[in-house]
Amino acid sequence: MTVPLQPTTPTPNVSADPSAPGRHAAEPSLGSLVSDASEHLSTLIRSEIELAKLELRSSVKNAGVGIGMFGAAAVVLIFSLTFGFLTLAEGIAALGLSRWLAFLIVFVLQLVVVGALAFLGYRKVKKVKAPARTISTSKETVAYLRSHG
């Protein structure tokens, strides 16, 4: 003989008819709806910020490691250039010029390259401007939120 299983949680005795006795037809007030919406919006914004932090943390870490590797490569390149320039100077000297003149030619060549790069860098930096449109729209957004908040 088997015993039928009974549900472990009692089922509420609520009728589908809203006018049935024992059922309250109270709807939330406008104030509580606005409060709930504000709370949910605040939670949503906090969650979005937390998600952005998590995503940016990973991106920043990868960018930092990448920048470190580029920095190490630049240091090795700088030290390697010394040997390259010495080789160039010795090669010029092997063409029949005296060694001091060959090293002077390489030195002047380096100064010309440094001057050209500094000039081009200066021109590029001079073109840097503040993000005027972004600043303007951000100020407008803050002003709107303050006046309508």
Structural class: mainly alpha
Cα-based radius of gyration, to the nearest Å: 37 Å
Model regions low in confidence, pLDDT < 50 over at least 5 residues: none
Oligomeric state of the chains present here: single chain
Q: What order do the helices and strands follow?
A: HHH
Please report the total strand number as a whole number.
Answer: 0
Structural domain count: 1
Q: Indicate the percent of residues in helices.
A: over 70%
Spatial shape: elongated
Average predicted local confidence, pLDDT: 83
Question: Cα distance, first to last residue?
Answer: 68 Å
Largest sheet: none
Tell me what portion of residues adopts beta-strand conformation: under 5%
Number of alpha- plus pi-helical segments: 3
Describe this structure in words.
- The structure is a single chain.
- This protein is mainly α.
- The chain has one domain (35-148).
- Helix content is 74%, strand content 0%.
- It has three helices and no strands.
- The chain starts with 29 loop residues before the first helix and ends with a helix.
- The model has no long low-confidence stretch (mean pLDDT 83).
Topology:
Blueprint: H1 30-94, H2 99-126, H3 132-148
Helix pairs in contact: 1-2
Keyphrases for this structure?
mainly alpha, elongated
